[in-house]
Every structure is written in structure tokens, then in C-alpha cells.
Write a structure and sequence with these properties.
By secondary structure, the chain is α+β, with helices and mostly antiparallel strands. The protein has 5 helices and 9 strands; from the N terminus they run E-E-H-H-H-E-E-H-E-E-E-E-H-E. The strands form 2 sheets. Strands 2-3-4-8-7-6-5 form a 7-stranded antiparallel sheet, sandwiched between helices. Helix 2 (38-53) packs across helix 3 (61-76). The two termini are 30 Å apart.
Length: 219
């Protein structure tokens, strides 16, 4: 699907209420203050997570987790302002799972766009995805798919879980998704991702504020 160019009157961002004991948000690349010392961020988060877990990390626990977080940050930290990335954290010695979210100005036919966002007709799917209706109080009715995807020239597959909505009130399309080769991690996180989907909403920032108002105030 080709996305037509639009003249934006607003900038959108996502509000996500998440449990910090389960989720860790990766700092965006455009936040230069965080990225100037990403190693300090990874060490701090690793130490806090081990303390909250309530076990002695030993000599290697914190450096190991800090290294994992550094690799995930380098691989998945978002560059666009309209994208956020959370990690589902489990035990400090377990691999996290990355979960992406994105908001864009609504474009095109609603049903066609949502089906595109959830990969309903993905030609790389092992079998046709089951497309389900999914409703949240904050975003209304959307779609959800779970599917297995082929990898090029290998017998391995990727598990992918995707959600998409059109927020008619703000005129925005929203997507929430994860994908990983470790299908067990995706399945393990599926219920938590569904709960997270209910906590997503859209904030609209007026980039041409009227005189006497702040551009940081939601319109």
C-alpha cells in the first residue's frame, strides 16, 4: 500500500500507561541527552531491575543485563517521534521482548488500512492469518492478528502479533506489534501485550497554536 503525502496540521504522540515492574521503555534516539550516555542508562536500569527482582546479581548479573539492554537499545530504539518501543522484562537473566507502537495521521479506507497494518494479507505468512476484531475503550474497535512468517531461504519462522486501530476522534491510525524468532517469548508475552493494548491512547499536539496558547498543550 502506497501512503499518499499529506499536509499535517497536528503532530500525534502516543500515551501508554504501563507497569514499570514489567515494562521498560527504550529511550528514543532523538533524545540526545539520553543517547549521549546510553551506557549509564543501561547500567542504571540493570541495577534497578535486579534490586526490584530481589535477588543478588553477583559480579556478572548487572553487567550481563546492561549488555542485553545496550544491544536492544542499539537495535530497536526509535528514531521517529511518533514511535515508542517497550521491552517486556521477565527474570534479569531472561531475554526481553521488544514491542513497538506507532501513530500516524489516518489515511485511506479504514478497513483496508487496518488490514494492511496487521498484515492480514501478508504473502510471507505460513498460512493465512486469522483476523480478529479487538476493542478498547480508548481507541475503539480495531483488528488483531497472530501469524507465523517465513524467513528467507531458511526453515525457521518468526511469530508476529499485531494490533491496529483508527482513532476517529483524533484522526489517527495506531499500530502495536511484536515479532521474534523465539516464538515462545511472543506467546509468553501475548496476554501482557493484550493488556498493554488497552492502555494505549493518542495525544494531539497543535503545531500551529493560536496566539496565547502553548504548542505543548493537547488540542
Amino acid at each position: 500500500m502506497t501512503e499518499p503525502l499529506v499536509e499535517l496540521e497536528h503532530e500525534f504522540s502516543l500515551d501508554i500507561e504501563y507497569d514499570p515492574s514489567r515494562w521498560l521503555e527504550l529511550p528514543p534516539r532523538w533524545d540526545t541527552e539520553e543517547w549521549q550516555d546510553i551506557d549509564a542508562w543501561t547500567r542504571s536500569c540493570a541495577g534497578l531491575f535486579w534490586r526490584s527482582y530481589g535477588q543478588d546479581p553477583g559480579e556478572s548479573g548487572i553487567p550481563f543485563l546492561a549488555g542485553v539492554l545496550r544491544r536492544f537499545a542499539e537495535a530497536f530504539a526509535p528514531e521517529p517521534f511518533d514511535t515508542r518501543v517497550l521491552l517486556r522484562m521477565w527474570e534479569p537473566t531472561s531475554m526481553p521482548l521488544q514491542v513497538f507502537s506507532m501513530v500516524k495521521p489516518a489515511q485511506g479506507d479504514r478497513e483496508e488500512t487496518l488490514r494492511f497494518l496487521v498484515g492480514a494479507e501478508d504473502p510471507d505468512a505460513v498460512e493465512p492469518p486469522v483476523v480478529e476484531s479487538f476493542h478498547t475503550e480508548r481507541l475503539g474497535r480495531g483488528l488483531r492478528t497472530f501469524r507465523y512468517l517465513r524467513q528467507d531461504d531458511t526453515p525457521d519462522v518468526i511469530a508476529a502479533l499485531r494490533y491496529a486501530w483508527r482513532d476517529e476522534e483524533t484522526g489517527a491510525d495506531v499500530a502495536l506489534w511484536t515479532a521474534a524468532e523465539d516464538t515462545a517469548r511472543v506467546i509468553r508475552a501475548a496476554q501482557d501485550i493484550e493488556e498493554l493494548a488497552h492502555k494505549v491512547s493518542v495525544a494531539v499536539w497543535d503545531i500551529n497554536p493560536k496566539e496565547g496558547t502553548s504548542p505543548n498543550e493537547p488540542s
